Automatic annotation (TrEMBL):
<dbReference type="GO" id="GO:0005737">
    <property type="term" value="C:cytoplasm"/>
</dbReference>
<protein>
    <submittedName>
        <fullName>Putative phosphodiesterase</fullName>
    </submittedName>
</protein>
<dbReference type="Pfam" id="PF00149">
    <property type="entry name" value="Metallophos"/>
</dbReference>
<dbReference type="InterPro" id="IPR041780">
    <property type="entry name" value="MPP_PrpE-like"/>
</dbReference>
<dbReference type="InterPro" id="IPR029052">
    <property type="entry name" value="Metallo-depent_PP-like"/>
</dbReference>
<dbReference type="InterPro" id="IPR006186">
    <property type="entry name" value="Ser/Thr-sp_prot-phosphatase"/>
</dbReference>
<feature type="domain" description="Calcineurin-like phosphoesterase">
    <location>
        <begin position="18"/>
        <end position="204"/>
    </location>
</feature>
<dbReference type="GO" id="GO:0016791">
    <property type="term" value="F:phosphatase activity"/>
</dbReference>
<dbReference type="InterPro" id="IPR050126">
    <property type="entry name" value="Ap4A_hydrolase"/>
</dbReference>
<dbReference type="InterPro" id="IPR004843">
    <property type="entry name" value="Calcineurin-like_PHP"/>
</dbReference>
Length: 248
């Protein structure tokens, strides 16, 4: 029986930073290594000032080296130098690796092809890692919330099917923009919470603060940039994609 005072998986309020929060990587291993170097991390993912990486999810799919990204992220998490929330692409990859019937599209086909060239042991480790990820984190005494698709204040710190759905997917309007991306309901426009919310999921050309929230997905896999926010400094650091790896 779980003790009532045992912290829930999303509760990292005791983790106070400083953090480097990294947007959607999508299998772009070379760009991730480049960004970590720009942020001051060593080749084995350690920062001399004790900083910690927080990934906003969608480490996988679409890009050229999902296994490489997972190796690096898993090693950093295991060493205590990073944490990651679950993105919708990890959600679907977990289902595929478990043998469920899922459509191999939106970049999942690349991940499955790349992982098929890896050992069964690595595939099992990758599955266990992705399946362990939770949809959102509350950090720094409640002052920072990380959720892949963002999260309205009333769901911060809650465990429910609705919280999970919002954190992973957001709310679709049923429309698509000029680039072909789904248009999500602009929850940040109505956000008035005290916590800073950092997220990804829907690519933007440039990060823009909206009511204390910031989207860090700057479309690296589509030829944009891979972006991080230094917290609490609020300094944006980004590196360019080597090329457009995936066409929507």
């Amino acid at each position: 029986m779980v003790s009532s005072d045992e912290p829930l998986p999303h509760d990292l309020r005791h983790e106070t930073g400083p953090f480097d929060v990294i947007g959607d990587v999508h299998g772009c291993h070379v760009e991730l290594v480049h960004l970590l170097r720009e942020l001051g991390y060593s080749t084995d993912g350690v920062h001399p000032d004790g900083r910690k990486v927080v990934f906003v999810g969608d480490l996988v799919d679409r890009g050229p080296d999902t296994p490489g990204v997972l190796r690096l992220a898993m090693a950093m998490v295991a060493a205590g130098n990073a944490v990651s929330v679950r993105g919708n692409h990890e959600e679907k990859l977990v289902r595929a690796l478990k043998g469920h019937a899922v459509q191999l599209n939106h970049g999942l086909e690349q991940s499955m092809e790349q992982l098929a060239r890896e050992t069964p042991e690595f595939r099992a480790e990758a599955l266990a890692f992705c399946d362990s990820l939770v949809p959102h984190f509350v950090l720094d005494g409640g002052r920072l919330v990380i959720a892949h698709a963002g999260l309205p204040e009333s769901y911060h710190g809650r465990e429910s099917a609705r919280t999970r759905s919002l954190a992973l997917w957001g709310v679709s309007t049923g429309r698509h923009d000029s680039r072909g991306f789904p248009v999500r309901y602009p929850w940040a426009r109505d956000y008035r919470g005290a916590a800073m919310v950092l997220y990804g999921h829907t690519p933007v050309e440039e990060p823009e603060w909206v009511n204390g929230t910031l989207c860090l997905d700057t479309g690296c896999v589509f030829g944009g940039r891979l972006t991080a926010l230094r917290y609490p400094e609020r300094e944006i650091v980004s590196v360019p994609a080597r090329r457009a790896w995936y066409r929507q």
